[in-house]
Design goal:
With about 160 residues, the protein is mainly alpha-helical. The protein folds into two domains: about 90 residues, Winged helix-like DNA-binding domain superfamily/Winged helix DNA-binding domain (Arc Repressor Mutant, subunit A, Orthogonal Bundle), CATH 1.10.10; about 40 residues, no CATH class. The protein contains six helices and two strands, in the order ααααββαα. It is globular, with a radius of gyration of 19 Å.
Length: about 160
C-alpha cells in the first residue's frame, strides 16, 4: 500500500472519529439548557468579550442575520448581554457573557470533561500516552490552519492559553 493511500485512510479514520467524538460530546449538553452551537457561542464570547454580531458570524462562518437571531435568543435567556462601553464607537455594542451564561458554560464543560476523563481512565498508561502524543500533533495541525504558533511535542502549555 502506498504512502498516499495510507494518508487518505488515516485522514478518513480521523475524520470519522472526530465526528463521532463531537456527537458524543454534544450529547453531554442534553438537559443543560443550551445547544452545542449555543455553548460554542458562549465560549467565544467568554474568551473574547466585546465581539460583535458581525465578528461572531465570521468566526462561526454563518450569515450575520443567523448570528443576530442566535445572539438575541441568548440575550433573552440572560446568557449574554450587550455592553456599548467596550467600543469607542458607541453605535457598536460588544457582547459579554453574563454570570448565568458563565455558570451554564461551566456546567456543560464539566459534564464534557467528566465524560472524557471516564473514557480516558479505561485506557492503559501507554494508551493514554499515545492519546497525549496524538492530541499534541492535532494541536499542531490546528495551529497550522489558524496561524497560531504551534508548540513542539511535549512542550508545556502557556498559562492562560486558550484551548
Amino acid at each position: 500500500m502506498g504512502q498516499g493511500r495510507h494518508s487518505n485512510d488515516l485522514a478518513h479514520r480521523l475524520q470519522r472519529l472526530v465526528l463521532q467524538l463531537n456527537r458524543e460530546l454534544r450529547a453531554q449538553n442534553a438537559g443543560a439548557g443550551a445547544s452545542n452551537a449555543d455553548a460554542m457561542l458562549l465560549a467565544e464570547v467568554r474568551h473574547s468579550p466585546g465581539l460583535g454580531v458581525s465578528e461572531l458570524a465570521a468566526i462561526e462562518n454563518v450569515a450575520r442575520s443567523v448570528m443576530s437571531e442566535r445572539v438575541k435568543r441568548l440575550q433573552v435567556a440572560g446568557l449574554v448581554a450587550g455592553d456599548p462601553a467596550l467600543h469607542q464607537d458607541r453605535r457598536r455594542v460588544g457582547l459579554v457573557i453574563t454570570d448565568n451564561g458563565r455558570a451554564l458554560l461551566e456546567t456543560i464543560t464539566a459534564k464534557r470533561r467528566d465524560w472524557m476523563a471516564e473514557r480516558l481512565a479505561t485506557l492503559s498508561p501507554s494508551e493514554r500516552e499515545a492519546v497525549q502524543v496524538a492530541v499534541e500533533s492535532l494541536e499542531r495541525i490546528i495551529g497550522q490552519r489558524t496561524g497560531t504558533a504551534a508548540r513542539p511535542p511535549g512542550s508545556a502549555k502557556i498559562e492562560g492559553e486558550r484551548t
